[in-house]
Design goal:
about 60% helix, flat, alpha/beta, 8-stranded mixed β-sheet
């Protein structure tokens, strides 16, 4: 998301870098370009006007005009305003209530049922015990879809297939949750093709009777300007507590995200960033603003790495590397984990300082993923013994593998040569790490009191 806007803003800031200072004239040019970039990103006109006005007010201050680096000053101003626009700070979910109730709202097609399942995955990962409740009694496939998703993620689904009494279903679900130890109920309410009186009446009744801790409105970010109208209507009648934006990975403009927070004054709490059922993330305004300006998002990158890479597997892999036992099977395991990490394009966008445009990231990503697929085919053409023992490779085996995989012999030789170099480097790094550890341990023991103060002073003088 935001790729189009991000590229344009970065380009505007680069052009400002050639100026000696921010003046009325060059600021007017920059503001005009920023306004155009926001409108092209499908940002609501009210939001654009407020955003530009705030930037202009801050940029006309004396401190800014006297600055020696205009592009950095402009980055700071735009960055701060983007954070304000996106909601200032992260707003965590409210888990109050026994059991805690989270009501999912939205029109049909917004991704409400799938987001309910994704939220259940997220809560389960955080140590909660969620229960999905099928409250959409009008769309025949809704209950079936929720049950199917529940099976995939290993989360219970409470439903009463023959009942049309939504209040009764929720009341019974609460009793069921209390009896069976579920602490969060996710209510997948009915959606409509458009907002109507009957829909709102039912939702208002649920709200007043059960008083859910969260009323999350699920919005399809691909709808652009219409997202603002939907959000404002739901909020006016129900008073939503937060927003869930879906399909952000498919929206290169990002206008909906920048508009709904300003227009409703309600925070984005969660974002859907992919089709997988674990692709629901907390929304951090500051991190998103940083990414929009091409400054990376190293915190999210580290958090994702902690989720994907298993600590036990990492230790086992490190042990293999230290003994130069790293095999082709291990390489495939690493490659599989990298796929779980997300697309290479997305990873590159999180790394600070690269300054790559969306087109450049996509080209690198496409080429890298193409190479990974070739390597996978190449390794799968080996025998199980060859995959586990790279040292078995000889000319006849290489020729057989090249013929079986359809990869030229030259490329096969090149990959195996690079793989051998990588194994040697890994062992070298491991040896250095062990030696440093021994030295640190020895020095620590000496400093810990095994030597007399006189001996320690002599040793310290020796280092001078």
């Amino acid at each position: 998301m935001f790729d189009s806007l991000s590229d344009k803003l970065q380009d505007i800031i680069k052009r400002t870098a050639g100026q000696k200072e921010l003046t009325q004239d060059n600021m007017q040019d920059a503001l005009r370009e920023i306004r155009r970039a926001l409108l092209e990103a499908d940002v609501n006109l009210r939001v654009v006007k407020a955003f530009i006005s705030n930037i202009k007010d801050k940029a006309e201050g004396e401190n800014v005009l006297a600055g020696v680096n205009p592009s950095q000053q402009l980055v700071k101003i735009v960055h701060d305003e983007l954070i304000e626009l996106l909601g200032k700070e992260v707003k965590p979910l409210d888990y109050s209530g026994h059991p805690n109730l989270i009501m999912m709202l939205g029109l049909q097609g917004s991704g409400k049922t799938t987001s309910s399942a994704k939220l259940a995955v997220k809560l389960k990962k955080e140590g909660r015990n969620p229960l999905l409740v099928a409250c959409d009694v009008y769309r025949p496939a809704a209950i079936t879809q929720l049950k199917s998703l529940g099976e995939q993620i290993g989360v219970n689904v409470y439903s009463e297939d023959e009942s049309k009494d939504v209040q009764g279903i929720i009341s019974n679900a609460i009793n069921y949750a209390k009896d069976n130890g579920f602490n969060t109920l996710i209510l997948d309410t009915a959606g409509r093709l458009q907002i109507d009186t009957d829909m709102m009446a039912e939702l208002l009744l649920i709200d007043r009777v059960f008083n859910p801790a969260e009323k999350l409105l699920v919005i399809d970010s691909m709808t652009g300007q219409e997202a603002v109208n939907v959000a404002e209507n739901f909020d006016a009648q129900l008073g939503v507590t937060g927003l869930v934006l879906t399909k952000l990975d498919g929206d290169s403009r990002g206008g909906a995200a920048l508009s709904v927070v300003y227009c409703t004054q309600k925070p984005i709490k969660l974002t859907g960033t992919g089709e997988k059922l674990n692709a629901l993330e907390d929304f951090y305004p500051e991190r998103m603003a940083t990414r929009i300006l091409g400054m990376g998002d190293i915190v999210s990158l580290v958090e994702r790495a902690q989720e994907v890479f298993d600590e036990k597997s990492a230790r086992e892999m490190e042990e293999k590397m230290s003994k130069a036992e790293f095999s082709f099977n291990d390489f495939l395991k690493m490659q599989k984990q990298m796929k779980m990490f997300g697309s290479m394009d997305n990873i590159l966008g999180m790394i600070p300082g690269l300054g790559l445009s969306k087109d450049d990231r996509q080209k690198i990503s496409h080429e890298g993923e193409k190479q990974f697929k070739r390597i996978e085919v190449f390794i799968q053409s080996m025998t199980p013994e060859e995959r586990e023992h790279p040292e078995l490779m000889n000319s006849s085996r290489k020729k057989r593998i090249a013929a079986g995989s359809g990869i030229p012999l030259h490329d096969v030789n090149l990959f195996i040569s690079q793989f051998d170099q990588m194994r040697s480097m890994m062992k070298g790094f491991s040896d250095v790490k062990k030696n440093m550890g021994k030295l640190a341990g020895k020095f620590g023991a000496e400093m810990g009191g095994k030597l007399s103060m006189h001996q320690m002073m002599k040793n310290m003088r020796r280092f001078k």
